[in-house]
Design goal:
The protein is of the alpha/beta class and 221 residues long. It has a single domain, classed as P-loop containing nucleotide triphosphate hydrolases (Rossmann fold, 3-Layer(aba) Sandwich), CATH 3.40.50. Helix content is 39%, strand content 22%. A seven-stranded parallel beta sheet has the order 4-2-6-1-9-10-11, with helices on both faces. It has a two-stranded parallel ribbon with strand order 3-5. It has a two-stranded antiparallel sheet with strand order 7-8. The longest helix has 14 residues. The relative contact order is 0.17. The model has no long low-confidence stretch (mean pLDDT 95). It binds adenosine-5'-triphosphate and magnesium ion. The site of adenosine-5'-triphosphate (ATP) has 15 residues, from helix 2.
Length: 221
């Protein structure tokens, strides 16, 4: 088995906030038994994303890497930081060194400011890891997703593929792939009740591990 079969490091981005990044991150973290890092958490009134992933993925505690920043308010990081009288410093967002797979979940969408002169997408460029773009399946996704892909490509950020999240849509996944040329990793269904077992079933059903390996191999060859 070569390393590509066993170690995966990706950034899970979304076309918007609340698009399913944490659920999809939990799915990958559980499936790959990987580390998880949400470097910037805005809002602590409900469960943090790290807590959600810990519950859903059921990986050992040390696999949930501590956030670099946790802000009180559920706002764009630049403003949430200002309200808490903090400033985000990119030096604190350096990639953690882990022996194993790693899933990083970004804050909000790509063009969300981290400071007054630095965007989430600028930080993604610095991390220099392939991106998995989570988008919704329903109306509005064509515009949001194609714009997000254009922004990533303009900066030469590698996009591994799309995860189309939600109720099955008959045309949107196909149209996204046709216009962008970005592969579809999977259509992740809407699930009423989910927990670790649901994620395990979907991981097998959707054959994610093989898809990741073949996508990574196709980039190398
Ligand atoms: N496929 C799905 N089936 C059922 N519920 C879903 C699905 N995808 C997302 N949700 C629900 O939608 C809400 C938002 O999802 P999630 O928290 O994963 O979004 P997010 O992109 O991580 O948001 P944020 O920008 O705040 O980090 C959650 O309550 C989640 O459980
Ligand atoms: Mg989230």
């Amino acid at each position: 088995m070569n390393s590509i079969d066993s170690i995966f490091k990706f950034i899970i981005c979304g076309t918007d906030t609340d698009i399913g990044k944490t659920l999809i991150s939990s799915f990958f973290v559980r499936g790959l038994n990987s580390y998880y890092w949400k470097p910037i958490q805005s809002g602590i009134e409900t469960k943090t994303d790290s807590q959600t992933v810990e519950t859903l993925a059921q990986v050992s505690r040390e696999k949930i890497i501590k956030e670099a920043y946790v802000f009180t308010k559920p706002l764009s990081p630049h403003w949430a930081a200002e309200i808490d009288q903090k400033t985000i410093n990119s030096n604190n967002l350096r990639l953690p060194e882990v022996k194993g797979s790693l899933i990083i979940e970004t804050a909000g969408g790509l063009m969300v400011p981290i400071t007054r002169n630095f965007l989430q997408i600028d930080q993604i460029k610095q991390w220099n890891l392939p991106v998995i773009l989570v988008c919704k399946s329903s109306l509005g996704t064509l515009n949001h997703t194609l714009l997000s892909i254009e922004a990533l490509e303009r900066r030469n950020i590698e996009i591994l593929g799309l995860v189309v999240n939600g109720e099955k849509h008959l045309d949107n996944p196909k149209t996204l792939v046709e216009f962008s040329g970005i592969p579809l990793i999977t259509e992740f269904p809407y699930i009423k009740k989910f927990g670790p077992n649901t994620l395990d079933i979907l991981w097998k059903e959707l054959d994610i591990k093989n898809k990741l390996v073949s996508l990574l191999n196709s980039k190398i060859n």
